[in-house]
Amino acid sequence: MSAREHPLPDTAVLTPVLQHSARMPVAFVGHGSPLNAIERNAWHLTWEEMGQQLLARCGRPQLVLCISAHWLTGASWWLTGMAQPRTIHDFGGFPRELFEQQYPAPGAPDAVQALARFLHDPGSGAPLGVDAGQWGLDHGAWGVLKPMFPKADLPVVQLSIAYERAPAQHFALGRQLAALRERGVLIVASGNIVHNLRALRPQAGINATYTWAQEFDTRVTQALQAQDWQSLVDFQSWGEIAELAHPSYDHYLPLLYAIGAVGPDEAPQFFNTGFQRGAISMRSVLWG
Questions:
Q1: In the prediction, which pLDDT does 4 show?
Q2: Element (H, E) at 214
Q3: Residue pair 32/280 in contact by the 8 Å Cβ criterion
Q4: What was the pLDDT predicted at 3?
Q5: pLDDT one-digit tens code per residue, 44-102
Q6: Rounded distance between C-alpha atoms, residue 82 and residue 156, angstroms
Q7: 199 with 34: CB under 8 angstroms?
Q8: Interatomic CA distance for residues 73 and 64, integer angstroms
Q9: For residue 10, what pLDDT is reported?
């Protein structure tokens, strides 16, 4: 990738706060409409089932690290560092019930200080920033984590997306996250493989979509199966289907963090393969 290589600090910096573990999974979750957080539809029920299965199969994570399409921070990366991250209702025009939702998962201030020293800006090599109180958990995070882990008893930290950076640098930071999986960290990236709100068809069924949306979703799926990471990083070169699938690409970038953390021996397991309102791909992927 084009991002400059900077050596990672010794993982010993993590030892006081994150113990060695078996490798935890990494997931890319298509979150779609905020209403999916409360509607017991197919997407929501699958998140519930997946959370139960992950706990049964992998045990309790020491930390959930979430990369959401809804925390964009310009040219710099940040980690939430507060002890009790607030539940952010970053949407409008939805029922009161959605605004009343809370997800009081604890933060992990000590772990975040270590993470900020371990991880670094792929361009400059500088440590990541720590947000002591401005952000919290946005609906891209709590909207999927609440169905998955309803007890809200797992520490959750969000990593922001430095939206002004090149796609290769998002992938490069994802590469750094791979080491955290052997420190009890479950990585959950939350976005959508296709996300065009201008083209929504409210009454469309889960398999109804546009030709361009299907083509983009299929091409991403094939690249994931082939571990063709370079193609996924270069998605902007795909022409019109990429422009239509992502008029802005905030919902695509979380996928680059997820694939960066994937090992060469891990095959993708797809779930929630379908479309919401015609122009949002809900396709999600689990590795490990």
A1: 55
A2: helix 211-226
A3: yes
A4: 46
A5: 999 999 999 999 999 999 999 999 999 999 999 999 999 999 999 999 999 999 999 99
A6: 10
A7: no
A8: 20
A9: 79
* pLDDT attached to residue 5: 63
Query: Can you give the pLDDT at residue 7?
Result: 72
How far apart are the C-alpha atoms of 235 and 166, rounded to whole Å? 12
Please tell me the distance from the alpha carbon of residue 4 to that of residue 12, in angstroms, as a whole number: 23
DSSP letter for each residue of 5-48? P-PPPPGGGGTTTS---SPPPEEEEE--SGGGGTS-SHHHHHHH
pTM over 0.90: yes
Amino acid at 18: L
Cβ burial, residue 1 (10 Å; 0-12/13-18/19+): middle
What are the b/e assignments for 100-135, b being 16+ CB within 10 Å? eeebebebbbebbbbbbebbbbbbeeebbbbbeeeb
pLDDT under 50 in the chain at which residues?
A: 1-3
Look at the block and give the residue holding tokens 């493989």. Answer: 193
Is residue 275 a contact partner of residue 209, using CB atoms and an 8 Å limit?
yes
Both tokens of 90, joined, read: 């970053």
CB-based contacts of 47, cutoff 8 Å, min separation 6: 29, 144, 147, 148
What is the residue whose two structure tokens read 């509607």?
39
The residue whose two tokens read 């994802």 is 174
Residue for token pair 């019109």: 240
